Amino acid sequence: MPLFSSAFARRTVALLFLGVLALLFIVAAAGWLTARTAAHTEEVIRERDLRMATGVIQTALLDAETGQRGYVLTAEARYLEPYTAALPVVRDAFARLSGLFHAQDRSEERLRQLRGDIDAKLAELAETVELTRAGRRDEALALVRTDRGKAAMDRARKTLGGLIEDAEARVTERLADLNRASELLLWVSGVGALLIVLFAAGAAWVVVQYTAQLVAARHELQVANASLEERVAERTTSLTRANEEIQRFAYIVSHDLRSPLVNIMGFTSELEVGAEALKRYLEGDAMQADRAKAAALEDIPEAIRFIRASTGRMDTLINAILKLSREGRRALNPEPVDLVKLFAATAASVQHQLDEANATLTVPDRAPIIVSDRLALEQVVGNVVDNAVKYLARDRPGRIAIVVSQSPGRISIAISDNGRGIAEQDSERIFELFRRAGAQDRPGEGIGLAHVRALARRLGGDISVRSELGRGSTFQIDLPVRLRVSDSQTHLEVTK
Fold it and tell me: How far is Cα 464 from Cα 330, in angstroms, rounded to an integer?
């Protein structure tokens, strides 16, 4: 069986290529999603830092305000500790907040406003502390009661609260983005894995198919090796039979051509004798008159007649040989042949002869369609049916029947008649070239059945006959269901 190695290679490479593309797609998608995840994570961290810085500023301002109020109310230095500790914390936290604002392209206006409010609050705190240190607590309290510091603190607290809310909103949004990216990465990985599994399964299927073809080819090779001796024996038998046919053909041709030549040579001698008698008579030998007359009126015309008959016979033989040679050289053309239609056409072609002979031809209404050479098959069936009609018995109505049977890879066509039959000793002779059996009361040259057997063997089959003298004959045509032209090559050489 043929092995589609190139197709196997193409399919395998295609599936591997698609698998690599799927893998590259997964890697690229995973890389892109990982980069997005990293970017979202970075932004979440920055928002967290911004929120922390904002919270630190807010807490430190409250600590400073608490320390300031305690000191103003009590004038005790120990209450200034929260205030003193909060001042550098506010400055450092604001510096971090400013850096985060620049990194994230935040609104500079809010930052300037916050800076002004913090500076205003710290200035109010510092002024009240200095007044208290100078013993001017009443002025410090009066400054506190002006709510200037409270207003700055409220504005700063509002701005810081807004920053915290924005940061939390952005963190929520980025966390949602991270979840979506994770889900998308999960889907991409799942779909990619499925595609890789499908491509791997496809590649495995191609490999399995190719392996099955290899196993089948190996099995066929083993079967071929096992039957090699049998096939060699069959071919040897076929060649032996072909050689015997060639020898028989050569003998028959040489014998049948030699007979007319002998006649021609003999009657040529008769012509020479008659011509000699005429010559002597013409030269004045009166004693040759009767002989010359007999030669001119009897011997020479008879010799010419026999010579003409012999040359006609030779011409017939040579034309028959040329016909067989032409048929042997014709290339076979296997094609589907509907046997039912072929039998119907054969019956139609001999219907006139059947009517004249008061005979019937029965053909099957069902038969398989085979692959063979249509022209050769028509000639085989047509010649056998024509012979059956030609040699029907005159003393009874003729009956001819075609029956088809089938076996694995072969088909058998049996053509039976109730004609005058063939003697047992002539059952093979009738298939020889220029040989006929029985009474020679029908026209023919003795090449029809020889031609039929040659064609049947070219078609990969054979023909045989079963007959009983006086009761009828059955010609059995055995053929393959599907003709392989190479099998007919041996038979082709035989007929040349």
Answer: 24
Instruction: Establish if 227 belongs to a structural domain.
Output: no
Residue, of 268 and 277, whose pLDDT is higher: 268
Mean pLDDT of 23-35: 75
Domain of residue 427 covers 331-496
Q: How far is CA 361 from CA 22, 278, 399, 443, 482, in A?
A: 72, 61, 6, 22, 27
> Alpha carbon of 9 to those of 13, 17, 198: distances in Å?
6, 12, 18
The number of distinct structural domains making up the chain is: 3
Give the CATH number of the domain where residue 446 resides: 3.30.565.10
Q: What is the pTM of this model?
A: 0.43
Q: Which of 435, 399, 432 is nearest to 415 (CA)?
A: 399
369 within 8 A of 341, measured Cβ to Cβ: no
Last residue of a domain, one of 154, 180, 214: 214
Mean pLDDT on 67-90: 83
